[in-house]
Design brief:
By secondary structure, the protein is an alpha/beta fold. The chain is about 20% helix and about 45% strand. The chain has helices spanning about 45-55, 115-120, 130-140, and strands at about 1-10, 15-25, 25-35, 35-40, 65-75, 80-90, 105-115, 125, 145-150, 150-155. Strands 1, 4, 5, 6, 9 and 10 form a six-stranded mixed sheet that branches. Strand 5 and strand 6 (about 80-90) form a beta hairpin. GO terms for molecular function: hydrolase activity. Keywords: Hydrolase, Magnesium.
Amino acid sequence: MHIGARVLLLDPDDRVLLLLSVDPDEPRRRWWDLPGGKREGREDLADTARRELVEETGLEPDTLERVLWEREARYRFRGQRWHRRDTTFLGRLAAPAPAKVRERSNLLDARWWTLEEVRRSAEKFLPPELPRLLAEVLDGGLRDPVVLEWGLDVS
């Protein structure tokens, strides 16, 4: 099992940064996900979250707050099966910043989304519970970390 970390990054307008990912071996498989990736060595998970955010987007959070959730998933990517557990942190930017992708291996685009845009969208999001979780984060209802169900994802 691989261990990793992600960031639910909010800008001053409470928009969330999501990255459009694709499986290069199956280009029709696309999804919007939080920035993040695999832990290196014995790296602290908060450091993993910060490093991955910078590598993928060039952005550094002004604050990296508490853990929001943990999610374990089994998925297929580049023709292989993977098993991973991610810890997701809440991050904030004090000033607006452009959404951009620096790492291009499987990332196609970056975009700031409002809660309403996420709720109305027919796009695939990971985690699938993102619309509900984002609403809970923004209204203060998600106070303690949660463990999300895991299963086979498209990512």
